[in-house]
Specification:
Blueprint: H1 3-6, H2 10-44, H3 49-58, H4 62-73, H5 79-89, H6 92-104, H7 109-118, H8 121-133, H9 138-163, H10 177-186, H11 193-212, H12 217-240
Helix pairs in contact: 2-3, 2-4, 2-9, 3-9, 4-5, 5-12, 8-9, 11-12
């Protein structure tokens, strides 16, 4: 299907772009300090400014970047373990992508690939909210995604500049940005017994594994254990129904 057929009139396109900008503004206010923290922590992990900014340009995944930077700072340089860890952490993107697939499947493949790269928790939340309020708009999703991407890269660059003047970012408490963000995203999802059990399993196993396993293996062990428990409980509930 031609892209032009998916876009509305000029006035409607302008309205969608303006709506996306307005909806995105409050989210951007939360992305900026997170991106600045990423830049500062990249320098703290002995990465160069160019490497840190390039990670934001080519990876564009806050959680993955923080985990990757933390692992590199801890001396873990094996790309296999870093990729596997970040893959497990970002498996939620499979679910987000699946829910958007009925809308994006009509788009040209290069555009699908671009939007898939741009897909973040924030972009997904805004796009799904727009679908529920009105309809799916490719221009809305593309505008929101582009704004978040540009802000993230610029905020990372700002963090790299600020990092030159901050010898120890941990004294500012900026290292808490990632767990705080995870908690904000997680807590609203704990809406039933199964999710609470899975949360408890992941929390307990990650703490004990961190005490006895080297490196960041506790992340992998906790992810696998929680996934198995969740799958088992969901399967039992499905059979019961």
């Amino acid at each position: 299907m031609q892209l032009s057929n998916l876009l509305s009139s000029k006035n409607e396109r302008a309205e969608e772009a303006w709506t996306a900008l307005c909806d995105c503004t409050p989210v951007v206010l939360g992305v900026v300090p997170f991106g600045i923290t990423c830049g500062i922590m990249g320098l703290a992990a002995k990465m160069s400014g160019a490497e840190t900014i390039s990670m934001s340009v080519f990876v564009f995944a806050g959680a993955s970047q923080f985990i990757g930077i933390t692992m590199l700072g801890a001396g873990i340089t094996g790309w296999g373990i870093i990729i596997l860890t970040t893959l497990l952490v970002n498996l939620r993107h499979l679910i987000m992508g699946s829910s958007l697939a009925p809308y994006m499947i009509r788009l040209p493949f290069p555009l699908q690939a671009l939007l898939a790269f741009f897909l973040t928790d924030e972009a997904y939340a805004l796009t799904i909210s727009r679908i529920h309020k009105a309809r799916y708009s490719i221009l809305y999703q593309l505008t929101v995604s582009t704004i978040l991407y540009l802000v993230w890269v610029l905020a990372t660059a700002a963090g790299v500049v600020l990092g030159s003047y901050i010898s120890d970012p941990l004294t500012w408490g900026l290292d808490f940005a990632m767990p705080a963000t995870f908690l904000v995203l997680l807590i609203p999802l704990l809406a039933d017994g199964i999710s609470l059990i899975v949360f408890a399993v992941a929390a307990v196993i990650s703490v004990f594994a961190a005490l006895y396993l080297p490196g960041k293996w506790y992340i992998i062990v906790a992810c696998l254990a929680a996934s198995l428990v969740g799958g088992f409980l969901e399967g039992d509930r499905g059979h019961a129904q």
